[in-house]
Specification:
320 residues, alpha/beta, Udp-n-acetylmuramoylalanyl-d-glutamate--2,6- Diaminopimelate Ligase, Chain: A, domain 1, Rossmann fold, 2 domains, 11 helices, 15 strands, 28% strand
Length: 320
């Protein structure tokens, strides 16, 4: 997270390997070109290469190419020598990968040249339109700007709260107490945050997820301890609660009038600093902080209302 609000946010660059990783969702099978799985995909939109094969356009070197019936028929009716000439130029043009739809078998010449030039070729039984829609939805999700931060993410009163602070200050213990009170755990230790429009969505990372480390007890899983209703895979991140030592906080805000914010991936969210010391029930205070944020979203601000009441009293004429 950053305190700057001016940082440009760009899409993530992914590699062809993600198609292999998502083969069940996308319904693809890798046929050749395994050495080219590190090629980068920079464009969320798929490309139909018909005009490229006919020589009308140059190939897009940053997008997934999807061949359908039209491209397959255009190539298959031509002699092998002509196929080779067309496809030689095609695979040399920097194409990251090609997917053939409708269950059509790639031409042997295409497989040969693609293997030689490390261009992954996939097949799919889906129709061209169906596959492109699913692929582009998938790429929008995968290429969303992402940042991984240290902390614990919980859902409190349907509000996603990112709890941060120094190691050992009690983030995980506080999160577990919140779960005991009926709230839900999203992620512990490492939280992956993606930007979707003007919204931040947080989740766990593979192999960690809702596993929690408690000193003295070891690694625990919130779902195993409290049931699957106590965990959720992702949540909209709407505020950050930073736990700080009582002696480190300096002059604490006692009125609630000073509203602070943090910026993550170009999106500003409220930033609440809570001093921690023995005997202070942080879980209760976080519950109250969540309720307060919900009220503020509805336009109810207790601190400003109290300030207005004080100013009104000060302006009233003194009594006899």
């Amino acid at each position: 997270m950053s305190e700057s609000t001016d940082r440009a946010v760009n899409d993530r660059i992914v590699t062809v390997q993600i198609l292999v990783d998502a083969r069940e969702r996308l319904g693809v099978v890798l046929q050749c070109g395994q050495q080219g799985l590190t090629k980068e995909i920079r464009n969320r939109s798929a490309v139909k290469p018909g005009l490229v094969l006919t020589g009308v356009q140059r190939a897009h070197g940053d997008a997934v190419h999807v061949m359908g019936r039209a491209e397959h028929e255009y190539l298959s009716v031509r002699p092998e020598s002509e196929q080779r000439q067309i496809l030689m130029d095609y695979v040399r043009s920097g194409v990251p990968c090609v997917v053939t739809c409708w269950g059509l078998a790639p031409l042997p010449v295409l497989l040969e040249l693609a293997e030689e030039h490390n261009v992954p070729i996939f097949t799919s039984r889906r129709t061209t339109g169906e596959f492109i829609r699913e692929l582009e939805l998938f790429l929008v999700e995968e290429m969303a700007p992402t940042e991984e931060v240290h902390g614990v993410l919980v859902q409190v009163h349907d509000l996603g709260l990112l709890i941060s602070g120094k190691s050992g200050i009690g983030k995980s213990e506080t999160a577990l107490e919140l779960v005991l009170r009926g709230h839900r755990m999203v992620a512990d230790d490492v939280v992956r945050i993606k930007r979707s429009g003007d919204t931040l969505v947080g989740s766990g990372v593979p192999m960690l997820g809702q596993y929690v480390e408690i000193r003295g007890l070891g690694i625990l899983h919130a779902g195993d301890l409290f049931g699957q209703a106590a965990v959720v895979d992702s949540v909209r991140v709407e505020a950050m609660v930073e736990l700080v030592g009582w002696d480190e906080v300096g002059e604490a805000d006692r009125s609630g009038l000073d509203e602070h914010s943090m910026t993550c991936l170009g999106v500003s969210i409220p930033h609440i600093r809570l001093p921690v010391r023995p005997g202070r029930n942080i879980a209760t205070i976080i519950e109250i902080a969540a309720r307060n944020q919900i009220l503020r979203k509805r336009g109810v601000n207790s601190a400003k209302r109290y300030e207005a009441l004080l100013l009104q009293r000060l302006q009233e004429p003194a009594g006899d």
